[in-house]
Amino acid sequence: xxxxxxxxxxxxxxxxxxxxxxxxxxxxxxxxxxxxxxxxxxxxxxxxxxxxxxxxxxxxxxxxxxxxxxxxxxxxxxxxxxxxxxxxxxxxxxxxxxxxxxxxxxxxxxxxxxxxxxxxxxxxxxxxxxxxxxxxxxxxxxxxxxxxxxxxxxxxxxxxx
Length: 161
Hints:
Blueprint: E1 2-6, H1 16-24, H2 31-37, E2 45-49, E3 52-56, H3 65-69, E4 75-76, E5 85-86, H4 96-100, E6 107-111, E7 120-124, H5 130-134, H6 140-144, E8 150-154
Antiparallel strand pairs: 1-8, 2-3, 4-5, 6-7
């Protein structure tokens, strides 16, 4: 199973990872239009801890509590070695997943309304750029990092006896 790891000492807080993530997940062809319409949001965030920049993204838990509490089926995980995926069309914006995340890395974002409708909240979280990986590409954040602070590496999972 592969996961994105952070080499904190390398991070420059340039936010190239955030921009690449927002672009890959934008909901319009034109990225600038998507940004202006609020339809491009990153799934990775830079947090500061004692003056050190720390890129934060979903840890893709083996027994994902966010999936366990999702009543709408918007969050799913095919197995413990698979990423937690989001189908925002199913998301009701209840926020249970946000509360359940032990790392505080699942967030809700306001989606602009179509004409005649109200805006709605939907879940946003890292999906390890599953579509990109299926094409043999790295996650956008990893590819965009100019100093190699984000790395896609194999991890060993626990073995059930």
